[in-house]
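Justification of computing resources. Each target in the renewal requires a structure prediction run like the one illustrated here; the chain below, 137 residues long, is used simply to show the kind of job we budget for.
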Amino acid sequence: MLVARITRLHGRTAEVWLMLKLEDGRYFHFPSFPDTTVYNTDGQTFTAGGLQFEVLHPMLRWRVTFNGRLREGQRNELDIEDEGILVHVQFAFVCTSFSGKFSYIDDNDLSVVSDVVAREPWSPSYLQRLNKYRYVS
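Resulting C-alpha cells:
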C-alpha cells in the first residue's frame, strides 16, 4: 500500500506525504513529515523531497517516482534528535485513475460554494480570486 501526496504551499514550500507498507508488514514514511520542503514544478511535473508526479494525461494518468530515504517503522511522536532507521528507497510506476476526474471548480455543489463565499469578508483582492476561479462573473 502506498499513500503519496504533495501539497503545494506558499513560497515554493510543500508538505510531502509518503507512506509505504510492504506485504511483509514493514512500514516506511517520509522522514520530515509533516514538515515542509521546497518544491519545483514546470506545470507538468511536480517534485518535492525526492517524490515526483509527472502528468501523462491530465487528471487521469501520472508517472510517480521516488528516490530518497524513508524512515522505517511507525512513529507516533516527532523526536528531532532521533531520526530512527533511515532506508534508501527507490520506485517508479504509472498510476491510472479508475474513476472519473474531479474538478474542484466544476464538481463542487454550488450551494456549498455559495455558502462559503457569502461567509468570507469581501475585498477587492477576494473578488479577484473569485473571478480567477470562475466563481463570480
